[in-house]
Amino acid sequence: MSQLEKNTLLVKKTAQHLGFDYCGIAKAEFLEEEAPKLEAWLARNYNGKMAYMANHFDKRLDPTRLVDNARSVVSLVFNYYPPKKLPEGKNDIKIAKYAYGKDYHFVIREKLNHFLEILKEEIGEINGRAFVDSAPVMERQWAQRAGLGWTGKNSLLLNKNMGSFFFLAELIIDLPLHHDNPVERDYCGTCTRCIDACPTDAIVEANLVDASRCISYLTIELKEEIPAEFKGKMENWAFGCDICQDVCPWNRFSRPHREPEFLPHTEVESLDWQEMTKDTFDRVFRKSAVKRSKWTGMMRNIQFIRKK
């Protein structure tokens, strides 16, 4: 077995050991096909108030600008589908499944750092960086190139064996590895359930999402008042939204995760969202992704949903 093969096998086995569901590898190179798509998306202002999406344009497309002499992009999948859905309770308030437990940035970042440590111990000095939704990396495009799935009409990565309720993460390293074959086929076919189900018409067309109309954007990223045009269209989502995933036929293959840190805080199930104080919010969501909205943002969202 060549050193290239040994190193590739080590990467795959380490991913499995650390609990990742899938691991794929792509060549670190400029994403030429994605450049005009990203440019057109930004030109339409589909990024809304997320001005940062227009920053570091070249870095988003070229991994060698993030890691000197990068040779490989290791894409990883980590399941977050919960063992059970949170009860909506008397307030009928819903939060996205990815935010049930501890903030995934912390959980997966720790695993990625350990991943790099193992590679360095086994192989020697490696120049690389770990990414989990934290830098200008086009994670879905890299995952597709690495053979982990295809881009659904809702713009999320879909995997035939587990749907889309998973996090994506990457290691960009200067280590040459065997590259996996990309998923060339679109397995969505003529299905339009995600497009039809979106209450705010955020999915403009197949594979094209106007983020400024997405409930996840409106409840998390938008810091201003939610526009009145979305009144009555939020379907009680106060943090994030799972509608386009819940209706996707491929998510019938979703299976419960095995990560204890993704289980919800003990108080979440019985929470009275409308009467929640700032102290309660800070305590319950101290380590949660929900804290991104802050208490004021969550109260704004709930009031917008409940106001007639």
Please explain how this structure is put together:
This protein has helices at residues 3-17, 34-43, 57-61, 104-123, 139-145, 193-197, 215-221, 243-246, 278-284, 294-306, and strands spanning 22-27, 72-79, 94-95, 128-131, 150-151, 157-158, 166-173, 203-205, 208-209, 237-239. With 308 residues, it is α+β, with helices and mostly antiparallel strands. The protein has two domains: 3-83 and 98-173, NADH Oxidase (3-Layer(aba) Sandwich), CATH 3.40.109; 193-306, no CATH class. Strand 5 and strand 6 (157-158) form a beta hairpin.
- Radius of gyration, whole Å: 20 Å
Proportion in β-strands: 5-15%
Number of H/I helices: 10
Strand order of the largest sheet: 1-2-7-4
**C-alpha geometry:** globular
Q: Which percent bin holds the helix content?
A: 25-40%
Query: Could you please say which CATH topology of the largest domain applies here?
Result: NADH Oxidase
Which spans have pLDDT < 50 for at least 5 consecutive residues? none
- Give the averaged pLDDT, no decimals: 94
How many beta-strand segments? 10
Structural class: alpha+beta
Sequence of secondary-structure elements: HEHHEEHEHEEEHEEHEHHH
CATH architecture annotation name of the largest domain? 3-Layer(aba) Sandwich
User: Whole-Å distance between the termini?
Assistant: 67 Å
Largest sheet: 4 strands, antiparallel
CATH class of the largest domain: Alpha Beta
Indicate how many domains the architecture comprises.
2
Pfam families: Fer4_16 (PF13484), QueG_DUF1730 (PF08331)
Binding site for [4Fe-4S] cluster 1: 188, 191, 194, 248
Subunit structure: Monomer.
Enzyme class: oxidoreductase
